[in-house]
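Translate sequence into structure tokens.
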Amino acid sequence: MISLKLKNIFALSIPLFIAHGTEEFLTHFYNIDAHDQAIFGLLSSLSNHGATFVVFQIMFWLILIVSYLLISSEQWRFRVMFIPGIIFIYELHHLYKAIAIGGYYPGLVTALFFPVIGYFYWRELLKLYKINQ
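Result follows.
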């Protein structure tokens, strides 16, 4: 149900996600982004160790849930592939923020590549969706 082409596009996005996260870290995205602060600001009252522990636990739980979905059926494997597609769209907020402030916004450089990969990803994903209906 998931084509080799979709798998390859996803595989190409992995180094981009790594580069993007690195850019965000190096440019202190976490200090200025409202979404990041809304989600992770709740951890600011914890010690570094406590916050790390909570994030690790949540990520582990998510890995368990996604792993279960991936092994439960081909249909769920296909549905899980919509998650990166949504993230490709969400990453457009860097471009929006850069336009809004009239300059560089942390994460912008690598975020510019997400619409390109996202276009090909969504095109293939929607093609497979139509075939499987």
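Note: The mean pLDDT is 95.
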